[in-house]
Each structure stands twice: as C-alpha cells, then as structure tokens.
Design brief:
Blueprint (H helix, E strand, L loop, with lengths): L1 H6 L8 H5 L10 E4 L5 E5 L4 E4 L3 H6 L21 E6 L2 E2 L2 E2 L2 H9 L4 E2 L12 E4 L8 H18 L7 E6 L1 H12 L19 E7 L8 H8 L1 E3 L2 E3 L1 H4 L17 E3 L12 H7 L6 H10 L3 H29 L11 E5 L2 E4 L2 E6 L2 E5 L14 H5 E4 L5 H5 L20 E5 L10 H12 L9
Parallel strand pairs: 1-8, 1-9, 7-8, 9-10, 10-14, 13-16, 14-19
Antiparallel strand pairs: 2-3, 2-4, 5-6, 11-12, 15-18, 16-17
C-alpha cells in the first residue's frame, strides 16, 4: 500500500514504441502534417537569409520587421516577394514546437518522411510536411495543399488515393477549407460548400484549431504579437493578411465595459479600430510608421495605403470565418479534435476609458478602476489552451451572439480529446501523441465511411 501511495501524483509518459511497434507493418494511407502560424521557417531567396525564426538570440531580441509583407499599392494584395517556406520549426529557445511529434511519427508510428515527387514503394508508411508562408492569405495556402495532395496521388499512382491530415492551429483551417471548398477562392463570392476535398481525406485530425477564431490576432493588432522579450509591432502585424482570418467569428461578442456589459462593435470594421485608436490608428504607431517609411508625404502616403489594405483584408477575414462556419451538412468530414482546456484563455477584452484614450484590458489586474463585485477574470477568460478556447476548438458557441446574428451552427466533430497543455506545446505532449497514434493506426471508421 505504501509503494502504491508513493506512486500517486507521478506523471508517467506512455511507452509509445512498445504500444505501437506491433502495428508498424500495417499499411496506412500517406499522412500530411500541417503546422500552424509561425510553424514554417521562412527564407528570403534573394539574400539566402532566414527571416523566421532565425537564432534564439534573434527570437529574444529581434524587432521582427523582417516579417513585414510587401504590398501592391494598386491591388492592395500582398506582393509575391522572394520569401519561401523551407523547413518546419522544430524547436527554439530550448522549447519543442514540432520536433517531438515528427520524431514520434517516425520512431513509434513507423512513418517515414517523404518529399513530393519521390517514387513510392509498396507497403511504405509515409508522411509529408505541408509548409506554407503563414503570413499570407489562407486561401492561397489552400491552393498549395491541393497541389501537394494531387502530387501524392501521382507518386502513389492512384488518382483516388485518400490521405490522412494532421493539422495544428491555423493548419486545421486550411484543411477544413480545402475539404469544403477545394482551392476555389470564395471569400468574395457567395456560394454554398462544394465539398470538393472531402473524397481526398480519410481522417482529419485537428490540434488546437480555432474553428470559431481566437483573440490572439486581435491582441496582436492592438499591442503587437509577443515574441521572446520583444513584440512584432502592430504596423508589421497589419501587413499580414492571414491574421484577420484567425479573429473571432463576427457573431461572437469580443468587447465588454468595466460594468460587464457587452459593447456591440464589429471586430472587422475599420471604424471600430479608428474610434478606439488601436493598431495603426494608435498615434504612436502612426508616427512610427510614417517615419520608418520615409517621413513626410511619402510616409503618410504609405500609411493611407496601409489603412485601405487593412480594410480589404479585414473584409476577407470576415468572409473566411463565415465560410468556415457555414451550416453543417451530412457531406462534411467529421474531424477528430485535440486540445487543451485547463488554461484561462482570453475570449473578451475589457474596454476602459483612461484620459483621452480607450484602453483594452486583457488582464483583470490591469483594470485601473474595477467595480466591486465583478469577477473580471471570469469575464475575460474561458477555458482553453491559452490561445484557443474549448468552444472555438469544438466549433460551438452556446452563448448569446451579437445583435443581428443567428446562433452559430456546430462543427460536426467525430471525437474530442482534451489535455492540460498550452497551445504551442500540444503536439509535444506524450498523452496527445498516444491518442494520435491510436486514432491513426487503430481507430476504425464506420464501414460506410472507410
């Protein structure tokens, strides 16, 4: 009894190789692994220099201005540029990002990494990495995913081959968009899902995917994206068109006042940001942007162009979220979802007026004049993984929506697994990896769907 008690509370990691080594000879469809935002290393092909993440020292102390996206002043689209994704972000600052999950797939799962275009031998168990420039538009990245799947089918000499997809965070949105709409850009159209990609996917596994958006990109626009000891400044974040496509669905309330009342403002309207003086409408950010872009008339012209660019991509972000939350259909692929629900995760900002400014509070301790009796921690946070709430991962919103919106449809989820783990470390969690390998190698789909 004493020996048993001594073991209580001890964290024991599952023996993954022992559990799954007997299944390594079983044939499996190819697996595509899609990292989330910041998960692909980016290289400037003109200079041969890495712009993300670079060294640990750069991660700690960089100004991150190299992440700024060049803009076509005439079309208000990102310029193609010379930046290329070239490798997965395995680890940095002594922390794992995607290294452990790839090692587990290889050593415990029996998978071997393949590159598109390589000849495939019968009986191999292979995985592919889909790398993309996460700064850019998600729909453009979906087109690359489609090309990868088609090339894998050529490599396997099977035009009807199905793949498994393991997608973390934003990568899950790429996979879901592909399943519903293929590579077609419907962010400026109005058509129902075609379910183009569903026949190509056997199993879709989503890890920490913000199916109804996240407050993280909102915070990045308000005060910059925190990295190491520095931040990606708001004027750089404003050039990244992928960020608005991760914001909360437009039906979801995201602002409250210090009394706890909802403030009905549209997160995708530039007027909201102008009125509150946030992002590139913050006087300090505006002046810094003007000076960095040449000052005077030249700098002001760039800033005016950046405002128009931001409006365009906020509109695309709105439409992207609406497409992703389209009414559920029996033809939808039902994903397996994995995530965390033990961390307080920002899902609303408290707005507080301070002198001549409107300040967004993401922490209860920052509120200067709190009202007695109001639980601000509960007002600001929902259970999640510190970035994505449990509700967003599950694609459900069982709370009142903003005026003028209907209740959001639920994402048809096949199975869900929750852990006590933070967003960026989910894929390295051994319990997640155990559930993942079981789902990939042992879980049997219904005969009608196999």
């Amino acid at each position: 009894m004493a020996a048993l008690a001594a073991g209580c509370g001890r964290r024991v990691e599952p023996p993954l190789q022992e559990l799954y080594s007997n299944l390594q000879g079983h044939e499996q469809p190819p697996l595509i692994v899609i990292p989330g935002a910041f998960g692909s290393r980016l290289l400037d092909a003109r200079t041969g220099r890495e712009i993300w993440p670079r060294s640990s020292a750069r991660l700690l102390f960089s100004s991150f201005k190299g992440l700024e996206v060049e803009i076509d002043e005439n079309t208000l689209d990102p310029l193609p540029g010379a930046v290329r994704p070239y490798a997965v972000f395995r680890q940095g600052l002594g922390r794992d990002f995607y290294g452990q999950i790839l090692d587990t797939l290889e050593y415990a799962g029996g998978y071997r990494r393949r590159r598109p275009g390589a000849r495939i031998e019968a009986g191999e168990r292979n995985y592919y990495l889909y790398l993309y420039d996460w700064r850019l538009d998600n729909v453009a990245a979906v087109a690359g995913l489609h090309r990868l799947i088609e090339q894998i089918r050529v490599d396997y000499a099977d035009p009807d081959l199905q793949v498994d997809i393991l997608a973390h965070s934003n990568g899950g949105l790429l996979a879901r968009y592909y399943a519903r709409y293929g590579q077609e850009d419907l962010t400026e159209a109005s058509r129902p899902p075609t379910f183009f990609g569903v026949p190509s996917i056997r199993r879709l596994l989503l890890v920490g995917t913000p199916n109804l958006g996240s407050m993280q990109p909102v915070l990045s626009h308000v005060r910059g994206e925190e990295m190491g000891l520095r931040k990606v400044p708001p004027e750089v974040v404003a050039t990244i068109p992928g960020a608005p496509q991760l914001m909360p669905h437009p039906a979801i309330p995201w602002l409250v006042n210090t009394r706890g009342d909802m403030i009905d403002r549209d997160v995708f309207s530039l007027e909201t940001w102008k009125d509150f003086g946030w992002s590139i409408f913050d006087p300090k950010v505006r002046e810094r942007t003007i000076q960095r872009k040449g000052g005077g008339k030249t700098g002001r012209r760039y800033l005016a162009m950046l405002e128009a660019y931001l409006q365009r991509h906020f509109s695309r972000g709105r439409r992207f979220l609406e497409l992703m939350a389209h009414e559920a259909d029996p033809r939808d692929i039902k994903p397996f979802v994995f995530g965390g629900d033990c961390d307080a995760t920002v899902s609303r900002l408290v707005v507080e007026k301070r002198r001549d400014r409107v300040v967004a509070r993401e922490r209860a301790s920052s509120i200067v004049k709190p009202i007695t009796g109001i639980d601000y921690d509960r007002l600001i946070h929902d259970p999640g993984d510190s970035v994505v709430t449990r509700d967003s991962l599950l694609g459900r919103y069982p709370h009142p929506v903003r005026p003028g919106f209907s209740a959001l449809p639920r994402l048809p989820v096949r199975h869900s697994v929750f852990l006590c783990e933070r967003h960026q470390f989910l894929t390295g969690n051994a319990e997640f990896q155990n559930n993942l390998l079981h789902t990939l190698l042992e879980f049997r789909l219904p005969v009608s769907e196999a």
